[in-house]
């Protein structure tokens, strides 16, 4: 039986390298992040041979990986607030604001949530309880 060698793209290699460099500084439950990265390491980026991703081949689209964005600063939040104001008056919808991939609750519309609905950052989520 022949062994199949998995060839990683430049983007997949960059993502793996960056993960190793920043994993201790990332917010949120360590176990959840480690488990998610193990899944990525095993499967790589989604591609057209993965049925759910056949029309959005990230392996082909991502030639390289961009560095992780840091937490949004005051200037980024101000730009997001200004950009959100243009939409606020034209559509009736709940606003959930992400700036550089980070949830910004102070800019989001969280008042009067429907019963049972909670909105928050996964970075602040506690790890799931383990069952024996």
Descriptive overview:
It is a single chain. The protein is mostly helical and 132 residues long. It contains four helices and two strands. The chain has helices at residues 10-22, 30-43, 58-61, 74-88, and strands at residues 98-99, 102-103. Strand 1 (98-99) and strand 2 form a beta hairpin. It is elongated and about 60 Å long. The N and C termini lie far apart (38 Å).
Percent in strands: under 5%
Q: What's the Cα radius of gyration?
A: 19 Å
- Biggest β-sheet description: 2 strands, antiparallel
Tertiary shape: elongated
Low-confidence blocks of residues: none
What structural class do helix, strand and pairing data support?
Answer: mainly alpha
Strands, count: 2
Structure summary:
The chain is mostly helical. It contains 4 helices and 2 strands.
What's the helix and strand layout?
Layout: H1 10-22, H2 30-43, H3 58-61, H4 74-88, E1 98-99, E2 102-103
Antiparallel strand pairs: 1-2
Quickly list its features.
single chain; elongated; 132 residues; two-stranded antiparallel sheet; mainly alpha; 35% helix; 2 strands; 4 helices
